[in-house]
Amino acid sequence: MTGHAAAVRTIPTVSTWPVLGCLPDLIRRKESFWTDIHRAHGDIVHLDLGVTGLVAVSHPRHAHHVLIENARNYVDKGGPTGFRATLLPLTGQGLSTIDVEDEHWRSRRDLIGPAFRQGALKAMTDHMAQLVEQHTAAWPTAQDGAEPGLDVVPPVTTAVTTALAELLYGAPINDHEIGQVSRAFEQIMNYMWVGMLASAVPPWAPFPGRRRQRQAIGVIENVVRDVVARRGPARSARAPELVDILSAAERQLDAEGLRDEAVSLLLGAEPLAISVSWALHLLARHQDAQHAARTEVDKVLAGRCPRFEDLAALPYLRMVLKEALRLCPPTYWVQRRAARDDVIDGVAVPAGTNVVVLIHRIHTHPDVWEAPEHFDPERFAPERAKLRHRQAWIPFGSGRRGCVAREFSMTLGHLILAQTLQRYEFSPHPRRTPRLTVAANLRPRAGVWLTARRRAAG
């Protein structure tokens, strides 16, 4: 039972090492760590991470309780703890990272939210499709004489980041800048676990990796500053109907607030690109699904660039994207802090406790998903989806603090899949088999490799 009833059991604590708790095991083992503690302790555990402690919950009903049903008790994200200890120096107080659901958060949501509503999204889609077309038309393929293999993460990242910059900033971003942001983001993500420990050390004190993290943050800030500086006449000449978030933001935000929103918006590109890359990899390994998706694309588009209204006629492709986001969600976990004492499934959660909703564990929970590790887009057919808990699939979070750009991201991912399947046939790389990560912001070092062959014209 989840709610305010009296606690009936004690929460198990996972702690392996003195001082460091279970953090070394979590860093070293990642996926198997969660599988083992779920098998040993169930859906709710207390994680001793040395400098901090977290209660991790991993069932859809827990997500419903924390993010929706009792969300008023969880309006605080918990400050610089957990992953936030690493990310807050980068994102600051952008909409996605503001600590408390207060007037400041509501005003920022009112400022940013309209850019992602249905009407604005419809106006953006045609231009978004043109940008995607430019960046998916010339991928290296086996017929080009190159090595018969392609790491799809860099070209997909280029397509996603370009669309985000031009559509949301109203300014172009070049390939060199995209590469800089991608490498810096990977450096920051590699520091993420260590950053938990670093949060207990004064900022002025030396700590392994801290200097490189600060340098990576500086790189991203410089790129964002340069892109924003290019806004101007080129914006209106290219696409006058598009929403430019920063134009509205400049009228209401100071320099620091503008910087935080600009950086936060850009950083959504990398995790989305990795999830879409995994969708292509999964299609490469499941030729029946790839054939079904391509048949749908060919029938609807007949070789032309997709429009907004075409996406509703590509339901199977959207199911493929949803299944990829289930297996590799953009976010690792969602963190909240309990304002008052609470009880979740008979477990006491004292006031002040940081609670994390484990998205990747919810997405593979055996009570919810049949054969959860298997790729099956048909899980998201309407007749099957309506039988599941509504919080069983939450790649963009949920509730009032759910990602404001959810439909923008889904539309962009949908377009990339449609336009790549128009041009290429994908198969597994003959020598490189990447291992799926539990979340897209834990970027695999080896990339997402597959073989792409250009389809015959017509």
Ordered list of secondary-structure elements with their pairings:
Layout lengths: L12 E2 L8 H7 L1 H11 L2 E5 L4 E5 L2 H10 L14 H8 L11 H10 L5 H19 L13 E2 L1 H17 L5 H16 L1 H7 L11 H20 L3 H6 L6 H6 L4 H13 L1 H17 L1 H15 L13 H13 L5 E5 L4 E3 L2 E3 L4 E5 H4 L19 H4 L20 H18 E5 L20 E6 L4
Describe this structure in words.
There is one protein chain. The strands form three sheets. The chain has a five-stranded mixed beta sheet, with helices on both faces. The protein has a three-stranded antiparallel beta sheet with strand order 4-10-9. It has 19 helices and ten strands. The protein has helices at 23-29, 31-41, 60-69, 84-91, 103-112, 118-136, 153-169, 175-190, 192-198, 210-229, 233-238, 245-250, 255-267, 269-285, 287-301, 315-327, 359-362, 382-385, 406-423; strands spanning 13-14, 44-48, 53-57, 150-151, 333-337, 342-344, 347-349, 354-358, 424-428, 449-454. The chain is globular. The protein has a single domain, classed as Cytochrome P450 (Cytochrome p450, Orthogonal Bundle). Helix content is 48%, strand content 9%.
